Amino acid sequence: MGDMIEDNETIEEFLARHAVDVEEAVRKAAAQEIMPRWRRLADHEIDRKSGPHDLVTDADRQAELYLTEALRGLLPGSVVVGEEAVHANPASYEGIRGRAPVWIVDPVDGTRQFVNGDTGFCTLVALALGGVVHASWTFAPVREELATAVRGQGAFLDGVRLNAGSPEPGRDLRVATSHPDFMTDDQKRSLLGLRTDGVAPRACGSAGLEYLAVARGESDATAFCWEAAWDHAAGLLLVEEAGGAHLTRAGEPFRITGGNDLPFTAARDEATARRVTGLLAAGA
């Protein structure tokens, strides 16, 4: 790999030395900034961004600040693209397309579930370079589950290797889909393609946990209509390294740098990904 991190260190060498430090930072952010606020949020700690389903809390903001400082400290010269920082300064999203290593952070993925006191939320961190995701961390603090992946080295849940496997023949495909509130009319038509015999679509929860469900074989696929890299980067690598695949409606792998033909899917295997994208294209 032509890009070096520091002192001629490659990103693989950095991960070999510091993956455990990233894990510690993720766990500490959850322990110090997220869990003390779970089921204890006051009204003034919750704000709405683009609409009633797009929430942000003090837990999101403070956990992202914690992770931003910790991750930059681990990898000098890196940049952080976090959901809340981008909301405050949309231009900062361009860091994903830059030349520096980039940490892609969603401090609380599933904020609506978090606000409601549900357990279905997680913290997502991915490390990318040149548009390629090299490592990811998905931490569900209430469930005390940590899923990790390093490109070319497999996906793991609490240290046990994940194998997405393939859907059981003859059973309906379990597909988690985007919420209609966040779709264009064209995307809604695409998703209608999933309303067919042999497919059981349902509304998704936390994107990060939906990817984990695919990587562990509990769900068969996703069908998502938005590109925000903090929701997808960690989970897409997790699914890939568990043996799965991801494809856009155009039949190409999803690019975290954007410009994808949406909707796209992440699925337990290549055949399922092609089946889902075929249905999405037919719906359009």
UniProtKB/TrEMBL annotation:
<dbReference type="GO" id="GO:0007165">
    <property type="term" value="P:signal transduction"/>
</dbReference>
<keyword id="KW-0460">Magnesium</keyword>
<dbReference type="GO" id="GO:0008934">
    <property type="term" value="F:inositol monophosphate 1-phosphatase activity"/>
</dbReference>
<dbReference type="InterPro" id="IPR020550">
    <property type="entry name" value="Inositol_monophosphatase_CS"/>
</dbReference>
<protein>
    <recommendedName>
        <fullName>inositol-phosphate phosphatase</fullName>
        <ecNumber>3.1.3.25</ecNumber>
    </recommendedName>
</protein>
<dbReference type="InterPro" id="IPR000760">
    <property type="entry name" value="Inositol_monophosphatase-like"/>
</dbReference>
<dbReference type="GO" id="GO:0046854">
    <property type="term" value="P:phosphatidylinositol phosphate biosynthetic process"/>
</dbReference>
<feature type="binding site">
    <location>
        <position position="106"/>
    </location>
    <ligand>
        <name>Mg(2+)</name>
    </ligand>
</feature>
<dbReference type="GO" id="GO:0006020">
    <property type="term" value="P:inositol metabolic process"/>
</dbReference>
<keyword id="KW-0378">Hydrolase</keyword>
<dbReference type="GO" id="GO:0046872">
    <property type="term" value="F:metal ion binding"/>
</dbReference>
<feature type="binding site">
    <location>
        <position position="109"/>
    </location>
    <ligand>
        <name>Mg(2+)</name>
    </ligand>
</feature>
<keyword id="KW-0479">Metal-binding</keyword>
<dbReference type="Pfam" id="PF00459">
    <property type="entry name" value="Inositol_P"/>
</dbReference>
<dbReference type="InterPro" id="IPR020583">
    <property type="entry name" value="Inositol_monoP_metal-BS"/>
</dbReference>
<feature type="binding site">
    <location>
        <position position="83"/>
    </location>
    <ligand>
        <name>Mg(2+)</name>
    </ligand>
</feature>
<feature type="binding site">
    <location>
        <position position="231"/>
    </location>
    <ligand>
        <name>Mg(2+)</name>
    </ligand>
</feature>
